[in-house]
Amino acid sequence: MAAPAAKGTSRTAQNDVASIKKKGPGALATAYLVIYNVVMTAGWLVIAIGLVRAYLSKGSYHGLYYSIERPLKFFQTGALLEILHCAVGIVPSSVVLTGFQVMSRVFLTWAVTHSVREVQNEDSVLLFVVAWTVTEIIRYSFYTFSLLNHLPYLIKWARYTLFIVLYPMGVTGELLTIYAALPYVQKTGLYSVTLPNKYNFSFDYYTFLILVMVSYIPLFPQLYFHMMRQRKKVLASGEEHQKSN
Amino acid sequence: LPPEGKALKDDEILQNLPVGTTATLYFKDLGPQVGWTMVFLCEYAGPLFIYLLFYFRLPYIYHHKHAFTSSPYPAVTLACVCHSIHYIKRLVETIFVHRFSHGTMPLRNIVRNCIYYWGFAAWLAYYINHPLYTPPYYGNKQVNYALAMFVICQAGNFSIHLALNNLRSDGSKARKIPYPTKNPFTWLFFFVSCPNYTYEAGAWFSFTIMTQCVPVGLFTLIGFIQMTIWAKGKHYTYIRDFKEYPDLRMAIIPFLL
């Protein structure tokens, strides 16, 4: 992070940044975002390579979660910064929407997969981890190239096409994993609070998980068809630019 | 065609507008609307009745052996009385006191608002009237102090609504700065722009202490956040519209917020 050389120049630099702000993030914010997106792309590549190596050495695709558990937790949790980016305004997305998306991933990573050890061996975990990994590698490289104003059509195409398969794949993996966790949550009373207690409050995590699963029914189609509409819009106008790329 | 500038007021007469012989009027379709009075009546009647369903422990809410029983704790009956009086007061104010500048709001709002009020009323009533309810830790002292504060805040809130109502007693729609009157409850106007919200937050805070119930606390917190947003909006509108607006006043919490 470069510090301003002298007080006079820093004020003019800030004025420039202030006038650029209306068009998008300032130069400093752009640099930070490029670094962030590059780091995230690299992180998910590490997870992808880890999965492939583990598969090759084990000879089967069972129980691969353990080989990428740490980087998965680190980089998926790191995505929380994206909420901050929206709140501060350097990324033009809705805080609520981004918050919702990131929190649902973090919820699955920590409150389900990490918390209920017995599901970590399930194949459904691999299903959503693979879906997330491919999606995130493409998404973060998309952002990186966009910020540098040099977006290869292939990346744009990939981002707005592969979701057609990856999104249902991820949702299936997530739902199956939550479903697999249910009996253990019920048996151990995980994260649950019962009456009576001096706060006069109760929470049943088992019921909560079921409600989460049910919420996929209205939410998934909305998000899926939103991406479909985005695809038509982006790729239709993209074809006109393709020749100039 | 996007129209520029603010919308015309309801009582402006076409002939008096500063336009030439031909004028173009832009209309905006606001979508299905519902009157504010109707919205408030629905929002407030719901919690009033729903709470009573739980207080009298109607069947299927709790275990069937508890149907139509009542709680042994006076705090629970007191909570029911307070909650009911609060919503009765709101209904009375809606019918007799409030004057609404805009007649209507979008239809979606009534659904969303009712879900919020009715849902929370059911949730907090469930715990307060539960057979396994635990009365407040410090017993009667806690309940009585909280009750006193609750009553004071209700009286305060009502006084402010009356004072605001009197600002437009001549039927005009012009905005005026509200000032403290002879009623001591209105003296909060020295310190905040929206003492009605201050008192409302205070009332729910007292209710939380009185029942010692986390869901009530959550309802109080969310309400406080929303009211702070509204208070800040009104506060800055006052400052913008009136050069002589008192400096000492904050939006909702004296000296702080």
Write up this protein.
The complex is a heterodimer of chains A (245) and B (257). Helix content of chain A is 76%, strand content 0%. Chain A has helices spanning 7-21, 27-58, 65-78, 81-88, 95-114, 123-147, 153-161, 163-188, 205-242. Chain B is mostly helical. Helix content of chain B is 54%, strand content 2%. Chain B has a two-stranded antiparallel sheet with strand order 1-2. In chain B, helix 1 (36-55) packs antiparallel against helix 2. Chain A binds chain B through residues 195-202, and chain B through 127-128, 130, 132-134, 137, 211-215.
Low-confidence stretches of chain B: none
The average pLDDT score of chain A comes to 87
Radius of gyration of chain A from the CA trace?
Answer: 21 Å
The coarse overall form of chain A would be globular
| Strand numbers in spatial order across the main sheet of chain B | 1-2
Largest sheet of chain A: none
Family (chain B): Belongs to the steroid 5-alpha reductase family.
InterPro entries (chain B): 3-oxo-5_a-steroid_4-DH_C, SRD5A/TECR, TECR-like_N
Transmembrane segments (chain B): 34-56, 115-133, 145-164, 185-203, 209-231
Pfam family, one (chain B): TECR_N
Short description:
The complex is a heterodimer of chains A (245) and B (257). With 245 residues, chain A is mostly helical.
Describe the secondary structure blueprint for this structure.
The complex is a heterodimer of chains A (245) and B (257).
Chain A: H1 7-21, H2 27-58, H3 65-78, H4 81-88, H5 95-114, H6 123-147, H7 153-161, H8 163-188, H9 205-242
Helix pairs in contact in A: 2-3, 2-6, 3-5, 4-5, 6-7, 6-8, 7-9, 8-9
Chain B: E1 33-35, H1 36-55, H2 74-97, E2 104-106, H3 107-128, H4 139-167, H5 195-211, H6 214-241
Antiparallel strand pairs in B: 1-2
Helix pairs in contact in B: 1-2, 1-3, 2-4, 3-6, 4-5, 5-6
